[in-house]
């Protein structure tokens, strides 16, 4: 592996006080803060690469690639490890989307392994409940999709025997791994909401409580980071999957344990049944692709709002020259306005397209986006109203709340020229907080991604309302970018709730418009507007570029932006294909890690 630096970072020096890197020109360093802290640099490999949010998961994917596995094989192995070592973000009890670029055929395929509402679910499922009450309950658990998705992508695109993909996860579950500081801190932050060790809403489930905490009525602090953790129940689940395939998860003893965990929830029982599990199917959906300055940007369509919102933002931004500095007030203003416009449409139109008519094509229609771009002036537009895209759609009311968070992203390119972009989730931290007894994995709370209200005050239904068997709207934006000839250029995606859309769009703009390499693109502090305030990320020494956040804030406020300065929980995993090899960037706001050769 060798570190590679593309375009000099000097392009950013106007408004950005850069941290010194080997690649930063002397003139740039002279303008920076006196004691600049180096920021991470990109990694380049010759033929294969995997980027995840955890070094153990990256290593698992790397081993599989080295053994001749495809990107799909590597993603399966990485997912089995992520569910163990980063359980707050994704796992077997959750759901995921995969965008696949096939090296041989050049085709893009998308796979929807999103959780589903049980057949017994009704529109008033969350009526009168606070988000926390809904989240920490059996009602929020959707029928998991991740095990079926793993099997589907392996069947369609795998090269190694299925059984071999479980070796790294099994070794870690039985031999042990170290709990990360990040996991421990998150457990502690949730425990702090409880009245006492015995009176608990968070980690109310005794299995999860015992696994993640000191587990007594007098000492229920989180096990500290670095604790050696073993999870033999998780190993048993992996063995079942390995030996019986996904059917071993969706039927039989494991399915019974899932149903028992949902229906026996100590706070609010849910209604998932064995039939719901046995009926679960991955959906192959048409990719949603849009053009951005001559590049084809492809991602996941409904039930995800990801590709539509990212595509709208880019289609609007295409009408402007963004200059050469991603943190210049002009560029940030434009990015924020594009975010406002995209979120206005997203909140009105997007739900599971198996249940509501989403005007997907119209939302990305170039003339429509030109019209939307025409609404942007030098001043902040304030709350954007949704537009009326061409095409059919159901009359719906906007969803006002937006509760998504958590999640993890995996990007892989293999030696065969395939690429995979997978965003995977249990929704909020540790999903609904219940660990399946004997299963060693957590259940999701994905159904809180539905609108809690079924209709607005006039009774107009909300596209993303709860319906039986429906998949909740997502913001997950696994994305693959190709050139005009269909050659692979970029694999990107991130966790971060509804901010996923902005993080992903920003990574693409940073590479395409500002010429940054993937790591430099990730190192740029985040800016975004989801049709509320314009959020600026404060600089993080050694992780992001340094910059004068107060000056940017003042410049935006002068244009009428309401501005917040907030920490951001992105977890971008980005791979760029260049003539010099695969160039990778990981997000060190989390435990990001790059592997390959
Ligand atoms: N739960 C995160 C998302 O689907 O957007």
Automatic annotation (TrEMBL):
Keyword Signal: yes
EC number(s) stated in the UniProt entry for this protein: 2.3.2.2, 3.4.19.13
InterPro entries named in the record: GGT_bact, GGT_lsub, GGT_peptidase, GGT_ssub_C, Ntn_hydrolases_N
Record's keyword terms, sorted: Acyltransferase, Glutathione biosynthesis, Hydrolase, Signal, Transferase, Zymogen
Post-translational modification: Cleaved by autocatalysis into a large and a small subunit.
Start-end of Polar residues biased regions: 397-408
UniProt pathway: Sulfur metabolism; glutathione metabolism
Region (Disordered): 381-408
Catalysis performed (reactions): an S-substituted glutathione + H2O = an S-substituted L-cysteinylglycine + L-glutamate; an N-terminal (5-L-glutamyl)-[peptide] + an alpha-amino acid = 5-L-glutamyl amino acid + an N-terminal L-alpha-aminoacyl-[peptide]; glutathione + H2O = L-cysteinylglycine + L-glutamate
An example Gene Ontology molecular-function term: leukotriene C4 gamma-glutamyl transferase activity
Residues annotated as signal peptide: 1-28
Homology family: Belongs to the gamma-glutamyltransferase family.
Subunit and partners: This enzyme consists of two polypeptide chains, which are synthesized in precursor form from a single polypeptide.
Name of protein: Glutathione hydrolase proenzyme
